[in-house]
Amino acid sequence: MLLKNGNNIWNEFLTFIKDKCSQAEFQNWIAPINVVENDEDDITLEVPNIFVQQYLIDNYKNELSSFLPVDKHGKPLIHFIITEQKLEKIEKNIENNIDEEDRSTSVESRFNTKLNENYTFADFIEGPSNQFVKSAAIGVATRPGKSYNPLFIYGGVGLGKTHLLHSIGHHAAQKKKKIRIQCITTEQFINDLVDSLRNKSVDQMKRFYRTLDILLVDDIQFLQNRLNFEEEFCNTFESLINQHKQVVITSDKPPSQLKLSERLIARMEWGLVANVGVPDLETRVAIIQYKAEKKGIRIPSKIAFFIAEHIFNNVRQLEGAINRLSAYSSSLQNEITEDIVEKSLSEMFQYVPQKKITVENILKSVSSMFNVRVQDLRGDSRTKDIAFPRQVAMYLAKELIHESLIKLASSFGGKTHSTLLHSWGKIRDQMKKDELLRRQVQMTKQNLEK
Ligand code: ADP
Ligand code: MG
Hints:
Elements: H1 4-18, H2 23-30, E1 34-38, E2 43-47, H3 50-67, E3 78-82, H4 83-97, H5 100-108, H6 131-142, E4 151-154, H7 161-175, E5 181-185, H8 186-198, H9 202-210, E6 214-218, H10 227-242, E7 246-251, H11 262-268, E8 272-275, H12 281-294, H13 301-310, H14 315-332, H15 338-345, H16 359-370, H17 374-378, H18 384-400, H19 405-410, H20 417-433, H21 435-449
Parallel strand pairs: 2-3, 4-7, 4-8, 5-6, 6-7
Antiparallel strand pairs: 1-2
Helix pairs in contact: 6-7, 8-9, 12-13, 12-14, 14-15, 16-18, 16-21, 18-20, 20-21
Bound molecules: adenosine-5'-diphosphate and magnesium ion (MG).
Protein backbone atom coordinates (compact mmCIF):
# COMPACT_ATOMS: atom_id res chain seq x y z
CA MET A 1 0.00 0.00 0.00
CA LEU A 2 2.92 2.32 0.62
CA LEU A 3 4.59 4.13 -2.18
CA LYS A 4 8.31 4.56 -2.56
CA ASN A 5 8.94 8.25 -2.21
CA GLY A 6 5.79 9.00 -0.27
CA ASN A 7 7.04 6.56 2.22
CA ASN A 8 10.31 8.43 2.57
CA ILE A 9 8.77 11.77 3.30
CA TRP A 10 6.32 10.19 5.70
CA ASN A 11 9.10 8.27 7.43
CA GLU A 12 11.03 11.46 7.90
CA PHE A 13 7.94 13.01 9.41
CA LEU A 14 7.52 9.99 11.69
CA THR A 15 11.10 10.12 12.89
CA PHE A 16 10.69 13.76 13.68
CA ILE A 17 7.36 13.32 15.46
CA LYS A 18 8.46 10.33 17.53
CA ASP A 19 10.42 12.57 19.85
CA LYS A 20 7.59 15.04 20.13
CA CYS A 21 4.96 12.80 21.63
CA SER A 22 4.68 10.01 24.14
CA GLN A 23 5.05 6.41 23.06
CA ALA A 24 1.40 5.70 23.80
CA GLU A 25 0.30 8.66 21.76
CA PHE A 26 2.47 7.55 18.91
CA GLN A 27 1.13 4.01 19.00
CA ASN A 28 -2.48 5.09 19.30
CA TRP A 29 -2.56 7.91 16.86
CA ILE A 30 0.34 8.08 14.50
CA ALA A 31 1.36 4.49 13.86
CA PRO A 32 -2.01 3.44 12.36
CA ILE A 33 -1.70 6.00 9.57
CA ASN A 34 -0.67 4.71 6.15
CA VAL A 35 0.49 6.54 3.05
CA VAL A 36 -1.63 5.52 0.09
CA GLU A 37 -0.41 7.87 -2.55
CA ASN A 38 2.08 10.64 -2.81
CA ASP A 39 3.44 12.86 -5.53
CA GLU A 40 4.94 16.31 -5.60
CA ASP A 41 1.58 18.00 -5.28
CA ASP A 42 -0.13 16.19 -2.52
CA ILE A 43 -0.25 13.16 -0.29
CA THR A 44 -3.05 10.72 0.48
CA LEU A 45 -3.17 9.21 3.92
CA GLU A 46 -5.30 6.36 5.09
CA VAL A 47 -6.50 6.81 8.64
CA PRO A 48 -8.54 4.32 10.69
CA ASN A 49 -11.16 6.91 11.59
CA ILE A 50 -12.02 10.59 11.66
CA PHE A 51 -10.57 11.02 15.15
CA VAL A 52 -7.09 10.18 13.94
CA GLN A 53 -7.43 12.64 11.07
CA GLN A 54 -8.50 15.40 13.43
CA TYR A 55 -5.80 14.54 15.89
CA LEU A 56 -3.12 14.81 13.26
CA ILE A 57 -4.32 18.18 12.00
CA ASP A 58 -5.00 19.61 15.44
CA ASN A 59 -1.65 18.68 16.88
CA TYR A 60 0.84 18.66 14.04
CA LYS A 61 -0.28 21.21 11.49
CA ASN A 62 3.01 23.09 11.53
CA GLU A 63 5.15 20.00 11.38
CA LEU A 64 3.05 18.61 8.54
CA SER A 65 3.50 21.84 6.62
CA SER A 66 7.25 21.58 6.89
CA PHE A 67 7.43 18.02 5.65
CA LEU A 68 4.59 17.62 3.19
CA PRO A 69 3.47 19.52 0.08
CA VAL A 70 1.58 22.69 0.94
CA ASP A 71 -0.94 24.90 -0.84
CA LYS A 72 -0.41 28.58 -1.53
CA HIS A 73 -1.50 29.47 1.99
CA GLY A 74 1.06 27.14 3.47
CA LYS A 75 -1.52 24.54 4.51
CA PRO A 76 -0.45 20.91 4.11
CA LEU A 77 -2.07 19.25 1.09
CA ILE A 78 -3.37 16.01 2.45
CA HIS A 79 -6.22 13.82 1.29
CA PHE A 80 -7.58 11.50 3.85
CA ILE A 81 -9.18 8.15 3.26
CA ILE A 82 -10.91 6.65 6.21
CA THR A 83 -10.43 2.93 6.55
CA GLU A 84 -13.62 2.67 8.51
CA GLN A 85 -15.64 3.71 5.50
CA LYS A 86 -13.93 1.22 3.27
CA LEU A 87 -14.33 -1.52 5.75
CA GLU A 88 -17.77 -0.74 6.94
CA LYS A 89 -19.34 -3.40 4.81
CA ILE A 90 -16.89 -6.08 5.75
CA GLU A 91 -17.22 -5.15 9.37
CA LYS A 92 -20.94 -5.44 9.27
CA ASN A 93 -20.64 -8.94 7.89
CA ILE A 94 -18.17 -9.95 10.54
CA GLU A 95 -20.31 -8.49 13.24
CA ASN A 96 -23.32 -10.38 12.03
CA ASN A 97 -21.35 -13.54 12.30
CA ILE A 98 -20.27 -13.04 15.89
CA ASP A 99 -22.47 -15.30 17.90
CA GLU A 100 -24.32 -13.88 20.86
CA GLU A 101 -22.17 -15.69 23.40
CA ASP A 102 -18.96 -14.03 22.28
CA ARG A 103 -20.61 -10.70 22.32
CA SER A 104 -21.95 -11.01 25.81
CA THR A 105 -18.59 -11.99 27.26
CA SER A 106 -16.95 -8.95 25.73
CA VAL A 107 -19.73 -6.77 27.04
CA GLU A 108 -19.37 -8.11 30.56
CA SER A 109 -15.64 -7.51 30.48
CA ARG A 110 -16.32 -3.82 30.63
CA PHE A 111 -17.60 -4.28 34.14
CA ASN A 112 -14.05 -4.65 35.38
CA THR A 113 -13.90 -1.37 37.22
CA LYS A 114 -14.21 -2.45 40.80
CA LEU A 115 -15.84 -0.31 43.39
CA ASN A 116 -13.52 0.33 46.31
CA GLU A 117 -14.97 -1.61 49.27
CA ASN A 118 -14.05 1.07 51.75
CA TYR A 119 -15.91 3.78 49.91
CA THR A 120 -19.42 3.44 51.29
CA PHE A 121 -21.88 5.95 52.67
CA ALA A 122 -21.47 4.41 56.11
CA ASP A 123 -17.76 5.19 55.99
CA PHE A 124 -18.28 8.74 54.85
CA ILE A 125 -18.22 11.14 57.79
CA GLU A 126 -20.67 13.95 57.50
CA GLY A 127 -20.24 17.59 58.41
CA PRO A 128 -21.55 20.96 57.26
CA SER A 129 -19.18 20.95 54.26
CA ASN A 130 -20.48 17.73 52.74
CA GLN A 131 -23.94 17.07 54.19
CA PHE A 132 -25.76 18.39 51.16
CA VAL A 133 -23.74 16.51 48.60
CA LYS A 134 -23.94 13.31 50.63
CA SER A 135 -27.69 13.45 50.84
CA ALA A 136 -27.93 14.17 47.11
CA ALA A 137 -25.70 11.15 46.50
CA ILE A 138 -27.88 8.96 48.69
CA GLY A 139 -30.87 10.32 46.80
CA VAL A 140 -29.63 9.26 43.38
CA ALA A 141 -28.38 5.91 44.69
CA THR A 142 -31.79 5.16 46.15
CA ARG A 143 -33.82 6.30 43.15
CA PRO A 144 -31.48 6.24 40.17
CA GLY A 145 -32.63 8.38 37.27
CA LYS A 146 -35.54 9.73 39.25
CA SER A 147 -34.16 12.53 41.37
CA TYR A 148 -31.30 14.64 40.05
CA ASN A 149 -29.88 13.75 36.71
CA PRO A 150 -27.02 14.18 36.25
CA LEU A 151 -25.61 14.66 39.70
CA PHE A 152 -22.44 16.70 39.31
CA ILE A 153 -20.08 16.58 42.30
CA TYR A 154 -17.14 18.94 42.43
CA GLY A 155 -14.48 19.90 44.95
CA GLY A 156 -10.76 19.98 45.69
CA VAL A 157 -8.33 17.09 45.85
CA GLY A 158 -8.80 14.47 48.54
CA LEU A 159 -12.16 15.68 49.78
CA GLY A 160 -14.14 12.53 49.05
CA LYS A 161 -15.50 12.86 45.49
CA THR A 162 -14.38 9.39 44.45
CA HIS A 163 -15.53 8.05 47.79
CA LEU A 164 -19.06 9.38 47.20
CA LEU A 165 -19.10 8.14 43.62
CA HIS A 166 -18.28 4.58 44.67
CA SER A 167 -20.72 4.80 47.56
CA ILE A 168 -23.49 5.47 45.07
CA GLY A 169 -22.46 2.36 43.17
CA HIS A 170 -22.45 0.16 46.28
CA HIS A 171 -25.72 1.46 47.54
CA ALA A 172 -27.55 1.04 44.24
CA ALA A 173 -26.09 -2.43 43.70
CA GLN A 174 -27.18 -3.50 47.15
CA LYS A 175 -30.71 -2.39 46.56
CA LYS A 176 -31.03 -4.04 43.19
CA LYS A 177 -28.84 -6.99 42.34
CA LYS A 178 -29.20 -6.92 38.57
CA ILE A 179 -28.61 -3.25 38.08
CA ARG A 180 -26.03 -2.39 35.42
CA ILE A 181 -23.49 0.02 36.82
CA GLN A 182 -20.34 1.26 35.19
CA CYS A 183 -17.95 3.22 37.37
CA ILE A 184 -15.12 4.61 35.32
CA THR A 185 -12.50 7.32 35.37
CA THR A 186 -12.48 9.74 32.47
CA GLU A 187 -9.07 8.40 31.48
CA GLN A 188 -10.48 4.88 31.32
CA PHE A 189 -13.38 6.10 29.22
CA ILE A 190 -10.96 7.68 26.76
CA ASN A 191 -8.77 4.58 26.67
CA ASP A 192 -11.81 2.43 26.13
CA LEU A 193 -12.82 4.62 23.24
CA VAL A 194 -9.33 4.58 21.76
CA ASP A 195 -9.20 0.80 22.02
CA SER A 196 -12.61 0.47 20.47
CA LEU A 197 -11.59 2.71 17.62
CA ARG A 198 -8.51 0.64 17.02
CA ASN A 199 -10.37 -2.64 17.24
CA LYS A 200 -13.22 -1.25 15.22
CA SER A 201 -15.63 -2.05 17.98
CA VAL A 202 -16.99 1.40 18.60
CA ASP A 203 -20.55 0.27 17.96
CA GLN A 204 -20.17 -2.42 20.55
CA MET A 205 -18.86 0.09 23.04
CA LYS A 206 -21.70 2.46 22.30
CA ARG A 207 -24.20 -0.32 22.70
CA PHE A 208 -22.66 -1.24 26.03
CA TYR A 209 -22.78 2.25 27.46
CA ARG A 210 -26.29 2.83 26.27
CA THR A 211 -27.58 -0.21 28.13
CA LEU A 212 -26.34 0.92 31.53
CA ASP A 213 -28.61 1.86 34.40
CA ILE A 214 -26.03 3.98 36.15
CA LEU A 215 -22.90 5.57 34.74
CA LEU A 216 -20.44 6.92 37.30
CA VAL A 217 -17.68 9.03 35.78
CA ASP A 218 -14.76 10.20 37.88
CA ASP A 219 -12.64 13.29 37.20
CA ILE A 220 -14.30 14.74 34.12
CA GLN A 221 -11.73 17.55 34.11
CA PHE A 222 -9.51 15.15 32.17
CA LEU A 223 -11.85 15.48 29.22
CA GLN A 224 -10.67 19.05 28.79
CA ASN A 225 -8.62 19.57 25.63
CA ARG A 226 -9.59 16.11 24.40
CA LEU A 227 -11.82 17.41 21.69
CA ASN A 228 -12.05 14.14 19.84
CA PHE A 229 -13.56 12.37 22.80
CA GLU A 230 -15.79 15.05 24.10
CA GLU A 231 -18.38 14.51 21.44
CA GLU A 232 -18.60 10.79 21.99
CA PHE A 233 -18.85 11.34 25.71
CA CYS A 234 -21.56 13.91 25.21
CA ASN A 235 -23.55 11.54 23.01
CA THR A 236 -23.31 8.71 25.50
CA PHE A 237 -24.27 11.05 28.25
CA GLU A 238 -27.30 12.44 26.43
CA SER A 239 -28.53 9.09 25.37
CA LEU A 240 -28.47 7.83 28.98
CA ILE A 241 -30.15 10.92 30.36
CA ASN A 242 -32.83 10.73 27.70
CA GLN A 243 -33.61 7.20 28.81
CA HIS A 244 -33.74 8.38 32.44
CA LYS A 245 -30.64 6.42 33.33
CA GLN A 246 -28.61 7.91 36.14
CA VAL A 247 -25.37 9.71 35.41
CA VAL A 248 -23.05 10.96 38.13
CA ILE A 249 -19.96 12.98 37.34
CA THR A 250 -17.14 14.24 39.54
CA SER A 251 -14.80 17.08 38.78
CA ASP A 252 -12.29 19.37 40.43
CA LYS A 253 -14.23 22.43 39.22
CA PRO A 254 -17.87 23.34 38.65
CA PRO A 255 -19.10 22.79 35.08
CA SER A 256 -18.94 26.47 34.16
CA GLN A 257 -15.22 26.58 34.85
CA LEU A 258 -14.35 23.56 32.75
CA LYS A 259 -12.87 24.10 29.31
CA LEU A 260 -15.46 21.99 27.55
CA SER A 261 -18.02 22.70 24.86
CA GLU A 262 -20.99 24.84 25.77
CA ARG A 263 -23.23 21.96 24.87
CA LEU A 264 -21.60 19.60 27.34
CA ILE A 265 -21.42 22.23 30.08
CA ALA A 266 -25.10 22.99 29.67
CA ARG A 267 -25.93 19.27 29.88
CA MET A 268 -23.91 18.86 33.02
CA GLU A 269 -25.76 21.74 34.62
CA TRP A 270 -29.13 20.17 33.84
CA GLY A 271 -29.32 18.24 37.06
CA LEU A 272 -27.85 19.12 40.39
CA VAL A 273 -24.40 20.62 40.87
CA ALA A 274 -23.14 19.96 44.41
CA ASN A 275 -19.92 20.93 46.11
CA VAL A 276 -17.79 18.87 48.49
CA GLY A 277 -16.13 21.43 50.68
CA VAL A 278 -13.19 21.34 53.04
CA PRO A 279 -14.38 19.75 56.29
CA ASP A 280 -14.33 22.02 59.33
CA LEU A 281 -12.29 21.29 62.42
CA GLU A 282 -14.92 19.16 64.19
CA THR A 283 -15.53 17.05 61.10
CA ARG A 284 -11.82 16.54 60.60
CA VAL A 285 -11.53 15.38 64.19
CA ALA A 286 -14.44 12.98 63.66
CA ILE A 287 -12.78 11.62 60.51
CA ILE A 288 -9.48 11.11 62.34
CA GLN A 289 -11.17 9.29 65.18
CA TYR A 290 -13.26 7.13 62.90
CA LYS A 291 -10.36 6.10 60.72
CA ALA A 292 -8.09 5.51 63.71
CA GLU A 293 -10.68 3.31 65.33
CA LYS A 294 -10.98 1.26 62.14
CA LYS A 295 -7.26 0.68 62.27
CA GLY A 296 -7.50 -0.30 65.87
CA ILE A 297 -5.60 2.62 67.31
CA ARG A 298 -6.78 5.03 69.93
CA ILE A 299 -6.09 8.69 69.46
CA PRO A 300 -6.92 10.89 72.44
CA SER A 301 -9.22 13.75 71.57
CA LYS A 302 -6.59 16.35 72.33
CA ILE A 303 -4.23 14.73 69.85
CA ALA A 304 -6.96 14.40 67.24
CA PHE A 305 -7.57 18.14 67.52
CA PHE A 306 -3.88 18.82 67.31
CA ILE A 307 -3.61 16.89 64.04
CA ALA A 308 -6.82 18.35 62.63
CA GLU A 309 -5.60 21.85 63.35
CA HIS A 310 -2.47 21.29 61.31
CA ILE A 311 -3.80 19.27 58.40
CA PHE A 312 -6.77 21.11 57.14
CA ASN A 313 -7.53 20.93 53.50
CA ASN A 314 -7.23 17.36 52.42
CA VAL A 315 -8.80 14.26 53.98
CA ARG A 316 -6.40 11.95 52.18
CA GLN A 317 -3.56 13.60 54.07
CA LEU A 318 -5.39 13.07 57.33
CA GLU A 319 -5.50 9.37 56.48
CA GLY A 320 -1.81 9.43 55.65
CA ALA A 321 -1.17 10.96 59.05
CA ILE A 322 -3.12 8.21 60.79
CA ASN A 323 -1.30 5.50 58.88
CA ARG A 324 2.01 6.99 59.86
CA LEU A 325 1.01 7.35 63.48
CA SER A 326 -0.24 3.81 63.57
CA ALA A 327 3.06 2.50 62.20
CA TYR A 328 5.00 4.67 64.61
CA SER A 329 3.05 3.80 67.70
CA SER A 330 2.89 0.08 67.03
CA SER A 331 6.61 -0.15 66.42
CA LEU A 332 7.23 1.59 69.71
CA GLN A 333 4.32 -0.10 71.44
CA ASN A 334 3.53 3.26 72.80
CA GLU A 335 0.49 5.27 73.53
CA ILE A 336 0.15 8.14 71.12
CA THR A 337 1.36 11.33 72.72
CA GLU A 338 1.79 14.83 71.43
CA ASP A 339 5.47 14.13 71.30
CA ILE A 340 5.01 11.16 68.97
CA VAL A 341 2.73 13.24 66.80
CA GLU A 342 5.29 16.02 66.52
CA LYS A 343 8.05 13.57 65.70
CA SER A 344 6.19 11.51 63.16
CA LEU A 345 4.04 14.10 61.47
CA SER A 346 5.78 17.44 61.60
CA GLU A 347 6.71 17.45 57.92
CA MET A 348 3.11 16.78 56.93
CA PHE A 349 1.81 19.73 58.86
CA GLN A 350 0.64 22.65 56.87
CA TYR A 351 2.05 25.99 57.73
CA VAL A 352 0.39 28.61 55.68
CA PRO A 353 2.85 31.13 54.28
CA GLN A 354 2.78 33.97 56.71
CA LYS A 355 0.98 37.07 55.68
CA LYS A 356 2.32 40.12 57.41
CA ILE A 357 0.45 40.10 60.67
CA THR A 358 -0.26 43.38 62.43
CA VAL A 359 -1.88 44.25 65.75
CA GLU A 360 -4.69 45.73 63.67
CA ASN A 361 -5.37 42.33 61.99
CA ILE A 362 -5.24 40.55 65.31
CA LEU A 363 -7.72 42.93 66.86
CA LYS A 364 -10.10 42.45 63.94
CA SER A 365 -9.85 38.70 64.02
CA VAL A 366 -10.30 38.56 67.81
CA SER A 367 -13.18 40.98 67.61
CA SER A 368 -15.08 38.73 65.23
CA MET A 369 -14.23 35.54 67.11
CA PHE A 370 -15.36 36.90 70.50
CA ASN A 371 -17.96 39.26 69.19
CA VAL A 372 -16.58 42.46 70.69
CA ARG A 373 -15.75 45.79 69.09
CA VAL A 374 -12.18 46.62 68.10
CA GLN A 375 -12.44 49.98 69.87
CA ASP A 376 -13.37 48.22 73.12
CA LEU A 377 -10.37 45.93 72.79
CA ARG A 378 -8.23 49.04 72.57
CA GLY A 379 -10.09 50.73 75.42
CA ASP A 380 -9.81 50.37 79.18
CA SER A 381 -12.92 48.42 80.11
CA ARG A 382 -12.19 45.67 82.61
CA THR A 383 -15.44 43.77 82.23
CA LYS A 384 -14.63 40.14 81.56
CA ASP A 385 -16.33 40.02 78.16
CA ILE A 386 -13.90 42.59 76.90
CA ALA A 387 -10.84 42.12 79.06
CA PHE A 388 -10.54 38.42 78.23
CA PRO A 389 -10.55 38.79 74.42
CA ARG A 390 -8.12 41.67 74.86
CA GLN A 391 -5.77 39.29 76.67
CA VAL A 392 -6.13 36.79 73.85
CA ALA A 393 -5.23 39.51 71.36
CA MET A 394 -2.18 40.41 73.43
CA TYR A 395 -1.16 36.78 73.60
CA LEU A 396 -1.41 36.47 69.82
CA ALA A 397 0.47 39.72 69.28
CA LYS A 398 3.40 38.52 71.35
CA GLU A 399 3.35 35.09 69.69
CA LEU A 400 3.04 36.26 66.12
CA ILE A 401 4.69 39.66 65.82
CA HIS A 402 8.37 40.10 66.37
CA GLU A 403 8.42 43.56 67.82
CA SER A 404 9.45 44.99 71.17
CA LEU A 405 6.89 44.49 73.92
CA ILE A 406 6.76 48.22 74.51
CA LYS A 407 5.84 48.90 70.92
CA LEU A 408 3.27 46.10 70.85
CA ALA A 409 1.68 47.21 74.11
CA SER A 410 1.37 50.77 72.88
CA SER A 411 -0.64 49.55 69.88
CA PHE A 412 -3.29 48.37 72.34
CA GLY A 413 -4.34 51.91 73.16
CA GLY A 414 -1.25 52.70 75.19
CA LYS A 415 -1.00 49.71 77.56
CA THR A 416 2.24 48.91 79.36
CA HIS A 417 4.57 46.11 78.43
CA SER A 418 4.00 44.39 81.77
CA THR A 419 0.25 44.26 81.11
CA LEU A 420 1.00 42.60 77.79
CA LEU A 421 3.39 40.12 79.34
CA HIS A 422 0.93 39.30 82.09
CA SER A 423 -1.88 38.70 79.59
CA TRP A 424 0.33 36.49 77.46
CA GLY A 425 1.26 34.31 80.45
CA LYS A 426 -2.30 34.03 81.59
CA ILE A 427 -3.64 32.88 78.22
CA ARG A 428 -0.73 30.52 77.67
CA ASP A 429 -1.43 28.80 81.00
CA GLN A 430 -5.15 28.69 80.53
CA MET A 431 -4.82 27.16 77.07
CA LYS A 432 -3.09 24.17 78.63
CA LYS A 433 -6.25 23.18 80.41
CA ASP A 434 -8.98 24.81 78.38
CA GLU A 435 -9.76 22.98 75.16
CA LEU A 436 -12.31 25.51 73.98
CA LEU A 437 -9.88 28.35 74.38
CA ARG A 438 -7.20 26.48 72.50
CA ARG A 439 -9.56 26.05 69.59
CA GLN A 440 -10.70 29.64 69.68
CA VAL A 441 -7.12 30.83 69.58
CA GLN A 442 -6.29 28.40 66.80
CA MET A 443 -9.24 29.56 64.73
CA THR A 444 -8.43 33.21 65.29
CA LYS A 445 -4.93 32.45 64.05
CA GLN A 446 -6.24 30.64 61.00
CA ASN A 447 -8.48 33.56 60.13
CA LEU A 448 -5.49 35.84 60.36
CA GLU A 449 -3.53 33.79 57.93
CA LYS A 450 -6.24 33.66 55.29
P1 ADP B 1 -11.16 12.97 45.82
O1 ADP B 1 -11.73 11.99 44.85
O2 ADP B 1 -12.08 14.10 46.11
O3 ADP B 1 -9.78 13.43 45.47
P2 ADP B 1 -11.25 10.71 47.59
O4 ADP B 1 -12.67 10.34 47.45
O5 ADP B 1 -10.25 9.86 46.88
O6 ADP B 1 -11.03 12.24 47.22
O7 ADP B 1 -10.93 10.78 49.15
C1 ADP B 1 -9.60 10.71 49.65
C2 ADP B 1 -9.58 9.84 50.87
O8 ADP B 1 -10.23 10.52 51.92
C3 ADP B 1 -10.34 8.55 50.66
O9 ADP B 1 -9.62 7.50 51.25
C4 ADP B 1 -11.65 8.76 51.36
O10 ADP B 1 -12.14 7.57 51.93
C5 ADP B 1 -11.30 9.77 52.44
N1 ADP B 1 -12.40 10.70 52.74
C6 ADP B 1 -12.70 11.87 52.14
N2 ADP B 1 -13.74 12.47 52.70
C7 ADP B 1 -14.16 11.65 53.70
C8 ADP B 1 -15.21 11.72 54.66
N3 ADP B 1 -16.05 12.75 54.71
N4 ADP B 1 -15.33 10.70 55.52
C9 ADP B 1 -14.47 9.68 55.50
N5 ADP B 1 -13.47 9.55 54.62
C10 ADP B 1 -13.29 10.52 53.72
MG1 MG C 1 -10.92 11.22 43.11
